[in-house]
Predict the structure.
Amino acid sequence: MSDRVSNSSAMTESSAAEIEIATRRLTAALDALESAVERRRDADRDENELATRIQALGADRSRLADELDGALVKARKLERANREISERLDSAIVTIRSVLDTGEDG
């Protein structure tokens, strides 16, 4: 019977050691899982921040494109007005010279 107690005691110690090893492995696995979850959470947060920045850049791009279109329209109008003024000035200069030439001849 002492053999049985001895065997039982050895099995209990062996089982306790196995349980201790399994507990350590489980703890390590849980720590690794927690770390992976935290990394994933950080990556998701970074991804969301990046998506927000991209969206803001898209809105800025659209606004700038609209402003550029408006500036181009205004520049074309100014060029057209500049040509018209230049033509009128040229015509006025010709008229003034003509009047002055006529006044000098007379």
Q: What stands out?
A: The radius of gyration is 45 Å.
